[in-house]
Amino acid sequence: MIKKTDILLRAIQFIIFVTLLCTAIAGSIRQAKGKNTAEVQSALLNPKYTAAVTQIQLQQESNNLRLTLKRSEEGFWTGSLRVLQSASVAAESTAFAVTGTPAMPDSTPTAPAAPAASGGTPAPGADLIFPADTLKIQNLLAEYGKVRNMYIISDNLRRYFLPDKTLSLTFSGKTSALHTQKNFSELYFASAHSPCIVHSAQGTSVYRTDDELCGFLSLHPASWLDPKLFCDFILNGKTEADVQKIQYTQFQEAEVRVQKILASGDSGFDQTVHELLSAQSLKIGLNETAADASNITQQSAAVFENRSAIKITLFFNASHTAAVFLYPIPTAQDINSAAEYTVIPADRRLSYSLRISAASFERMCVPFIR
Question: Which DSSP helix (H) or strand (E) runs through 367?
């Protein structure tokens, strides 16, 4: 007959065995994932600095590219892409596509392609400056400021961080106690792809952490673009309800050919405002004439030779307006028929272009072209 004490002893032994077995299995799983048992909980950006970040810089030297995101005093973000060295080699490689949406984070560009109307690649030191999506940047700051599990896998930087793949990500800004720009976090990633392997400039430990962080390492402007034709940056907080008047001006070379005005209360006004402020495109490119196009007047309207320039201006009050220029891109069959339009903001602080279809143009300009 088995005594109760024997049953209790065997039960205790079984519990100890199961505990040791689970520990061994967990250790094996970590080894299989390439993780060291040295586990820490930390954030890659100190959470107390997330609100103070005013600049985010992503750089991959093997591509000679640097993407910088900056926050204005009004709280809106812009992005700039700079070619650090000669783009002649990069131009022969895969350029930015001005159609479609880039894969993220797998596609890393070599040099931005321009719209067909201008052509060319940015010169070394030149920037493609575009409005950035504030929500995407807020998500970036939230994820990097989140405390998460990180696993020390090595202290051998050379083994993981190869010059042709390594990316750097730097967060900087000012706090109330600082009068100069300071780097809050300077990180280096083994690549833009999973597994997410990272180390800080302040140490030599190599960490393996959540792969989702690699989703923010794209250098493609379309990954960060505010895609609206009338972006938040140029609207400066204004909404559909604030628009009082729309002015549609069509130039033919140096002359004003057509000018129409649609005011609040007119038939079709509310729908037209909605269409204009809702229109979007991810077909971004560098336009070499953007700096000139931003200062178009009646005397210098035809930036693209003899093509008709169209200017759409939104009036909010006597001192605040927002405007974009549109240039028709002729079809191969008929130079007088537009297949697409190149869109350039009138704001001189930006130097980028978008593409929209002829159908999109017609939909948002119904009262002016019917």
Answer: helix 366-369
Residue 186 has phi, psi (to 5 degrees) of -125, 110
Give the three-class secondary structure for 10: helix
Name the one residue in this structure whose structure tokens are 């509310």. 270
pLDDT tens-digit readout, 32-82: 444 445 889 999 999 999 999 999 999 987 778 899 999 998 999 999 998
pLDDT confidence of residue 285: 80
> How many residues are there in the chain?
370
Hey, what's the torsion of the CAs at 285, 291, 293, 295, to 10 degrees?
150
Distance CA 127, CA 121 (A): 11
With a CB cutoff of 8 Å and minimum separation 6, the contacts of 230 are 276, 277, 279, 314, 322, 324
- pTM for the complete prediction? 0.75
Q: Which of 171, 117, 112, 111 is nearest to 141 (CA)?
A: 171
Please give the structure tokens belonging to residue 277: 């402020």
Question: Which two tokens mark 364?
Answer: 């948002």
Taking the C-alpha atoms of residue 124 and residue 111, their distance in angstroms, rounded to an integer, is 11
